[in-house]
């Protein structure tokens, strides 16, 4: 999952940016998570040290009330996340040339003196970064066996196999619901189509379920229930129970 980090020292504007991003995630069914929303650039540095291999989208105020300004913070972000997407939010758009001096390759500048424009630009830049990331992943041959691309009515979403708990069919529709650690997404497909796209970590445990073996916590043989690592449950049929137990035990 792609993470979003917000660093803005004005509490009102920080909340506004966070609300806009949360609304965009929900309304556009984006596979995004706001990992950090803070006024302190040192919290961002701590986050980077703990999440060194994660690509992120960063919304940064340039004029932070700190000895670390947004440009300096962005330079540090590049050390840990060279492929991340950095968007500056500032009243000083004339400072855009400074990004070349700091070598941070900012994706955009958003003026924050116009509330309506701020909301629109935050949403637009979020979607641009999200789509760029998904297109890059989709075209990266090294990652092709690590994720599945799901298409909803308006978006393509890539989900790493390791984040998937199980897929289930939805009664009386041609839809599938995928359960991940963070959310559930509905899309048009079938179990048969999914089996052709998934790797050997997934097992067809029941007519209506495809389960990720690596995320199983417990198998209740008596009740024919599979409990996942987040305590969600799905089913296994009697006919497929033996095969599931054998595969899970390997």
Automatic annotation (TrEMBL):
Keywords: Activator, Cytoplasm, Phosphoprotein, Two-component regulatory system. Residues 3-127 form the Response regulatory domain. The modification 4-aspartylphosphate is found at residue 61. GO terms for molecular function: DNA binding; phosphorelay response regulator activity. The keyword Nucleus does not apply. Residues 159-250 form the HTH LytTR-type domain. It holds the Pfam family LytTR. PROSITE patterns: HTH_LYTTR (PS50930), RESPONSE_REGULATORY (PS50110). InterPro entries: CheY-like_superfamily (IPR011006), LytR-like (IPR046947), LytTR_DNA-bd_dom (IPR007492), Sig_transdc_resp-reg_receiver (IPR001789). May play the central regulatory role in sporulation. It may be an element of the effector pathway responsible for the activation of sporulation genes in response to nutritional stress. Spo0A may act in concert with spo0H (a sigma factor) to control the expression of some genes that are critical to the sporulation process. This is Stage 0 sporulation protein A homolog.
């Amino acid at each position: 999952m792609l993470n979003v980090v917000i660093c803005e020292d004005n509490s009102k504007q920080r909340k506004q940016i966070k609300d806009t991003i949360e609304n965009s995630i929900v309304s556009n069914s984006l596979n995004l998570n706001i990992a950090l929303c803070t006024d302190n650039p040192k919290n961002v540095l701590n986050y980077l040290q703990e999440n060194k291999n994660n690509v992120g989208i960063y919304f940064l105020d340039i004029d932070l009330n700190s000895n670390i300004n947004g440009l300096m913070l962005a330079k540090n972000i590049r050390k840990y996340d060279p492929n991340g997407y950095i968007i500056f939010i500032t009243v000083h758009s004339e400072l855009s040339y400074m990004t070349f001096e700091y070598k941070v390759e900012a994706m955009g500048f958003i003026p924050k003196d116009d509330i309506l424009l701020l909301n629109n630009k935050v949403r637009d830049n979020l979607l641009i970064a999200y789509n760029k990331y998904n297109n890059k992943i989709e075209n990266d041959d090294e990652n092709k066996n690590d994720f599945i691309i799901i298409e909803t009515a308006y978006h393509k979403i890539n989900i790493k196999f390791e984040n998937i708990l199980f897929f289930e069919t939805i009664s009386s529709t041609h839809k599938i619901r995928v359960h991940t650690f963070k959310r559930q997404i509905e899309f048009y497909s079938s179990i048969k189509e999914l089996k052709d796209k998934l790797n050997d970590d997934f097992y067809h445990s029941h007519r209506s379920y495809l389960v990720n073996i690596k995320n199983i916590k417990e198998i209740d043989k008596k009740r024919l229930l599979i409990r996942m690592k987040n305590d969600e449950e799905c089913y296994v049929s009697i006919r497929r129970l033996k095969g599931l137990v054998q595969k899970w035990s390997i």
